[in-house]
Design a protein that fits this description.
Distance between the termini: 31 Å
Number of strands: 6
Low-confidence stretches: none
Helix content: 25-40%
CATH topology: NE0471 N-terminal domain-like
Oligomer: single chain
Shape: globular
CATH class: Alpha Beta
Radius of gyration: 14 Å
Number of helices: 4
Largest sheet: 3 strands, antiparallel
CATH architecture: 2-Layer Sandwich
Order of helices and strands: EEEHHHEEEH
Number of domains: 1
Structural class: alpha+beta
Length: about 120
């Protein structure tokens, strides 16, 4: 039994996507919900194996120190579709690994929007 999302659910299908290299990613989903994720929040939530391992099982205090290493004025240098299921980003700090699958973008988009569009990014 798995908790993986149903990738055929319109909730996980982007209807429209817009990348603002200085601000972040806006996605309107198949169920008409719109999410926004800032550049920095995308970077902090990178699904790359090295970043996940580095931040795994850290205390909130340790995470705060790690997150402080990511520039507040971080931007997206490039964004590209990865097949029909994900996006890839290159950030201004040269981080470019990590495949952001659409179901993951929906999850972190909802998380980012839940904190008042980044009033407290992390």
């Amino acid at each position: 039994m798995t908790d993986a999302p149903d990738k055929n659910d319109p909730k996980y299908e982007p209807y429209d996507m817009e990348v603002d290299l200085n601000k972040g990613l806006t996605i309107t989903w198949g169920d008409k919900v719109k999410t926004f994720i800032s550049c920095r929040f995308l970077r902090l939530k990178s699904p790359c194996a090295q970043w996940r391992e580095y931040t795994k099982e850290r205390t909130p205090e340790q995470l705060e120190i790690i997150y402080d290493t990511v520039p507040k004025d971080l931007t997206i240098v490039d964004a590209k579709e990865m097949g029909n299921y994900a996006l890839g980003f290159m950030f201004s700090d040269n981080h470019q690994t990590g495949i952001f699958e659409f179901h993951y973008l929906r999850k972190i988009g909802e998380e980012f929007n839940a904190v008042g569009q980044g009033a407290s990014e992390v």
